[in-house]
Amino acid sequence: MTRARALDSPALIRSLLLSNPHDLPLLTERNPALAEALLSGNLDAFSRVLLEQQRERALREQERLRLFTADPFDPEAQAKIEEEIRQRNVEENMSIAMEEAPESFGQVTMLYINCKVNGHPLKAFVDSGAQMTIMSQACAERCNIIRLVDRRWAGIAKGVGTQRIIGRVHLAQIQIEGDFLQCSFSILEDQPMDMLLGLDMLRRHQCSLDLKKNVLVIGTTGTQTHFLPEGELPPCAKLACGAGQEQPPDREAAGTIKHSVKDLGRKKR
């Protein structure tokens, strides 16, 4: 069977993708719609999604050819041609990066540690880019320190979004390994993360992040505590890790499919 015929056969494409374990994770990440149809076990569903994406790609290719044959003095055509060239450069840059630095496309595990506040075990997010240490209102209630909130310090926390600060706990103990450290918390009304250790706390206790050893070092005591592995992260951290850049699905699908068909050709030879 020729490569051209292979690319026209949804059944064969589906078989090739299922038989190549290296392609499935890439397809799942970059083209979830096609991956879902592939793993559903329904050939008709897979064929519908694949053919729709192929039609969209063909229409874009026709538009691209039309632009290249359009009036060279048409500003709209020139702008679209410029964008096409820019996008090609971006894709070439991405291809080189995937070849030379594939690890940059993986998910980065956020830095969390185990700790305790008022005897209650927590998973705290370590963020040296955050100005202040924060705790959710729900977590403060669980740790029984909500009674210490000074509501005169209410306000608005601004970052990627905005959240209401209901007040501040001026002093409480946080336990990291065997150390009991003094800490203050700004209490946020609606925060899915239990606690975030910000720069105020990290500076106060001269903490350092040793990413080679994968530990947080408490400089004032020398105590080290390991950052949590991905499997032990809280649900809110796992959701954040799953977010990423979207890729045009049909273009990514085409690349994955061509790669599989090329592998088939090598096996036959």
UniProtKB/TrEMBL annotation:
Start and end residues of each stretch annotated as Disordered: 242-269
Span of domain Ddi1/2 HDD: 8-73
Protein name, entry field: Protein DDI1 homolog 1
BP-aspect Gene Ontology terms: proteolysis
MF (Gene Ontology): aspartic-type endopeptidase activity
CDD domains: RP_DDI
Family note: Belongs to the DDI1 family.
Source organism (scientific name): Gulo gulo (Wolverine)
Keywords linked to the UniProt accession: Aspartyl protease, Hydrolase, Protease
PANTHER family: DNA DAMAGE INDUCIBLE 1 HOMOLOG 2 (PTHR15397:SF3), SODIUM-GLUCOSE COTRANSPORTER REGULATORY PROTEIN -RELATED (PTHR15397)
Xref: Pfam families: Asp_protease (PF09668), Ddi2_HDD (PF24669)
Top-level division of the source organism's lineage: Eukaryota
UniProt domain Aspartic peptidase DDI1-type: residue ranges: 102-210
Biased composition (Basic and acidic residues): 260-269
